[in-house]
Amino acid sequence: MRNLLVVLVCMATTGWVLCQPAFSQTDVDDNSHPFQTDSDWNHDRHSQVVPIGAIGVPGTSKANPFVSFDQARVDTKSQLLFVSSRSSKAVAIFDALTDRKLGETPAVFAGVGIDSPHSGPDGNVVAGHYLFAGDYPSTVRVFDLSVSVSSPPEVAEIHTGGMFRADEMDYDPAEQVVAVTNGDSTPAFITLISSKTFKIVKKIVFDGTNGTPDTSQGGIASVLYDSRTNKFLISIPEVGSNLTAGAVAVMDPATGDVTQVFSGLDNCMPSGMAQGPRDNVLVTCDPGFPAPDPVLFAPRTYVINGRTGAILANIPQVGGVDYGAYDPVDHDYYLGARDYFTSPGATTASPVLGVIDAETNEWIENFPTGTNAHSVTVNPVNNQIFVPIEDPNPLCGTLPGCVSVFTDARRGFQW
Fold first, then answer.
1. Between the CA of residue 218 and those of 191, 236, 275, 277, 404, what are the distances in Å?
2. According to the 3-state scheme, what is the secondary structure of the chain?
3. Where is the signal peptide (predicted)?
4. Using one digit for the tens of pLDDT, what is the confidence trace for 40-66?
5. Which residue, among 283, 180, 275, 168, has the nearest Cα to 229 in the 3D structure?
6. Within a 10 A sphere around the Cβ of 7, how many other Cβ atoms?
7. Residue ranges of domains in the chain
């Protein structure tokens, strides 16, 4: 049978490595495919990811390469991509439709510290026309995108009262509050901040009282706003002193009360989350590398019901994931698995971009990425997946670190 072979032809332009498809007819085996990394291509699984280019990061250069970062997030309403670049002490800003770099916030963040809890920027989120971003020490910085998307001025600096970074965050547009984690503190806590006044509304300490789980050992990993339940979901890597017991807490944004705790996410150390189809929520697992026990904490990823906490799937083919993202158009989850390992005896991690079919909760593939590739975000409008990649890495070409751009070959290339 004659199949279509797609070859990526790459050329470098200023700050951008573009890979365009060149098509040719060639004879290949009936049971193979040029992008096949799993055995199910002919059964028409949802995704086969293909790298199509790389974007240089503002504020970085050969002399100051892109080597440290945290969250990448596409704001689908504005079609802007934000990358928390510790290497440039700023949040880098890109056009998520054209894949062009636009600029960055002022370089006011802590930058690369002795470890992640002493570094910034960290998590980021858009609330209205404001960009919120976490920093060390225990600071949330706010920038006004309505003034400029390429160089938004800082309009607020909010201190949440901890010793380490203000880390992950998400936004509830109904209550107009941003939930911010201080996950490295002991005990960890959440701060609710008004997106209108930039004032702290409430601070909720997760110390095992008032319905909160005890985070004294493992802290808090992330927070997700679930628009279907109008609740914040908070991932808890370790409940109390039980290393294997992970959970997700449910918080009412209006009151700050923890109303439920979803347990049973064991041998996982829950980290990132993503709202999937129906009531489904992806919960990633990241015990770090090396894992405390590579047999007990073998790779896995959970999907739960965001209303009840019922575990819908336990997916063993990918784990060691910090961030996850969901594309509501191709119905796939994408996972930044920097700490994935292939066997209990592995001496090094094998970082990959994992792909899971969100309709069936079946694993599709793992695409090799590179050291510290832990963040991922998607733009469903143009079918692109963005993965920050530290220098050096072949995915970046000659760029000194980059945001690697992928697409789903099943949906086709879109520019």
1. 18, 7, 23, 29, 31
2. CEEEEEEEEEEEECCEEEEEEEEEEEECCCCCCCCCCCCCHHHCCCCCEEEEEEECCCCCCCCCCCCCEEEEEEECCCCEEEEEECCCCEEEEEECCCCEEEEECCCCCCECCCCHHHCECCCEEEECCEEEEEECCCEEEEEECCCCCCCCCEEEEEECCCCCCCCCEEEECCCCEEEEEECCCCCCEEEEEECCCCCEEEEEECECCCCCCECCCCCCCEEEEECCCCEEEEEECCECCECCCCEEEEECCCCCCEEEEECCCCCCCEEEEEECCCCEEEEEECCCCCCCCCCCCCCCEEEEECCCCCEEEEECCCCCCCCEEEECCCCEEEEEECCCCCCCCCCCCCCEEEEEECCCCEEEEEEECCCCCCCCEEECCCCEEEEEECCCCHHHCCCCCEEEEEEECCCCCCC
3. 1-19
4. 433 355 558 999 999 999 999 999 999
5. 275
6. 12
7. 1-65+327-415
User: Are the C-beta atoms of residues 337 and 351 closer than 8 Å to each other?
Assistant: yes
134 near 168, Cβ under 8 Å?
A: yes
Number of residues in the chain: 415
Residue 224, both tokens: 């997700």
Q: Which pLDDT tens digit goes with each residue over 180-217?
A: 999 999 999 999 999 999 999 999 999 999 999 999 99
pLDDT confidence tier of residue 15, bands split at 50, 70 and 90: low
pLDDT for residue 303 is more than 70: yes
HSE-up of 106 (CA within 13 Å, CB side)? Answer: 11
**By the 8 A CB rule, do 152 and 144 touch?**
yes
Rounded to an integer, the average pLDDT of 379-394 is 97
Q: Please, which residues bridge with residue 247 across strands?
A: 236
- Do 182 and 189 contact (CB within 8 A), yes or no? yes
For the record, the structure tokens of 158 come out as 């909010």
Tell me the percentage of the chain whose pLDDT exceeds 70.
87
The closest of 397, 312, 309 to 362, measured between CA atoms, is: 312
Write the pLDDT tens digit of every residue in 136-147.
999 999 999 999
Task: Supply the pLDDT for residue 412.
Answer: 56
Cα radius of gyration rounded to whole Å, the chain: 20
Beta-bridge partner residues of 357:
332, 362
